[in-house]
Fold Phenylacetic acid degradation bifunctional protein PaaZ.
Amino acid sequence: MSVLKSFIAGQWVGEQAAKALPSAVNGEIVAHTHDDTLDFKDAVEYGRKVGGKNLMAMDFQERALALKAMAMYLQEHKKELYALSMHTGASKGDNGIDIDGGFGTLFSYASMGRRELPSGNVLHEGPVVPLGKNNHFAGTHIMVPRGGVAVHIDAYNFPVWGMLEKFAPTFLAGMPSIVKPATSTCYVTELAVRLMQESGALPEGSLQLIIGSTGDLFEHLEEQDVVTFTGSAATARKLRNHPNIINRSIPFNAEADSLNSAILAPDVTPEHEEFDIFVKEVGREMTAKAGQKCTAIRRVMVPRDQVEAVCDKLKERLSKVTVGDPSVEGVRMGALASIDQLEDVKANIQELLKTSELVVGGDDNFKPTGEGTENGAFIEPHLLLCRNPESGCGAHDIEAFGPVATVIPYDTIEDALALSAKGRGSLVTTLTTRDPAIAGKIVPALAAYHGRLHLLNAEAAKESTGHGSPLPMLKHGGPGRAGGGEELGGIRAVHHYLQRTSIQGSPTMLAAVTGEYVRGAELIEYDVHPFRRHFEDLQINESLLTHRRTVTEADIVNFGCLSGDHFYMHFDELAARESQFGKRIAHGYFVLSAAAGLFVSPGEGPVLANYGLDTLRFIEPVAPGDTIRARLTCKRKIDQGRTSPDGHPQGVVVWDVQVHNQNDEMVASYDILTLVAKKPE
């Protein structure tokens, strides 16, 4: 039988068998953990010195490319992960959530990194704030890699996604990871790490794997390190209070299991499509991953007069769920992750039954489908009903981490809000309603207790990713019992692994540090137009001051006729005279177009295309007779490694544009983005 290995300090370690890890499906031994002692001091130092050095030799853009390469390699080998993951009790659909969901997270962060992060390892978090009257002294914020290691402690229910959703933003941030998966399903994580190593995209030292106990790992962590945890609230409290975590103020992010809710609004009745959508959502969340999701619906809150209808519909739906070996055709729900987990769920169901009655489940004749499943960790879906929650309801305190949910009646919207709050903080709640006014009233009150709110109606159901699906671009986490932490949320997750620092100085100094042009900084001016220079030749602060142009009434008339914009401020002399401007003014977009005419170099050159426009503001009006000129300055360069249609490499250049009038007043301000070719090889 195979012995799983830890990947520590660049070596696979593990020869002596320790704990046997049985299949959740048939009880057969899948693998053993190892009994070899790990040197965690060496692991941490290796992560900092080797992993940190190698990651810092890359920039944000290069690390994003490496994430994409890893994701593509994992995608090519997912069948291996699927086959092994079956032993955790995961069905094909469950693997879609865990394995494909993990790959999708890597792809998402690779894409976000390419779009939103700069070249280099300094992320400028503006705006720049003038701190002196004449702009000789200013301040802004930068974010830089912390220089430590990130320790990620994951739960058993998502052995692939649980690792990758933390690893992806950590890697982008230039921080090496030490991953500790939950023991019962760590054999799947180990295979995923092996594949990531085989991909060739993982710099040495950037990822280490612990199989088994963390031992004295926390003793060797320092102020620049980070710890993240997913699991029970009790374990989170224990780890958060480790003396070294407290004494060194080491950031600790927790995402804990929570008592998530689904609320059926009073405007929805069995005659409405939303009623069936609600029942389908609850049933799906009860059975996906056999209910072993931190986001699973545990409390089902419905109007009191709809209790019987909801219970009947759920009973009908759950009766059609075939439980058993995921490899058997027709099986929709697999096993819990382990026999220990099965016993824990059964015990919690008995506690819940002290304040509730059983609607579905508890069948003495229940037998899972498939050979050998009598030795597996199977349980049928259990639906409970707490008829009188005002007299006490264990579902507000007890979580059976399996296919278990409790229906709880309410009388008014205010009651539903109060019942939801009894969970003391949740990751997610679904509100099913047909009425936007109800959503507008309920959501602000619910938001104080939740990390995410899923608003479900017939329209949203057409494309909804579901109650229990954290998405890379949206925050995952919640207050109170849910751990009080945050994960994902797009580039916000990368920020968790960077150090934010405010910097003050002259605009020229700030530009040198941020790698971006700061208004007021010393300019670089050449005889050659900036649009005639290739990507690698352009310098930050390189600038062009254009010739002047006087705006005429003919300009306004011609632009209005061309664009179809005959707004009164441009054409009605009397109305314009009575406005706050006291006169007719030119179209803002004419000013924008005229400025482009001033700074664009019309001939063929390295600038390939206009890529976009950001931060546009029209600051002062431009009237007939005013004279404008523009200053174009290279603000930021992003070497994305992208290729143009002819195969030549290129990058994105962000230009700062300021348009002034004859009184040196700024009339327009914006950033223009262009694709700029590199020199041909």
Q: What stands out?
A: Residues 84 and 188 are 6 Å apart (CA to CA). The chain has a mean pLDDT of 91. The longest helix spans residues 92-116.
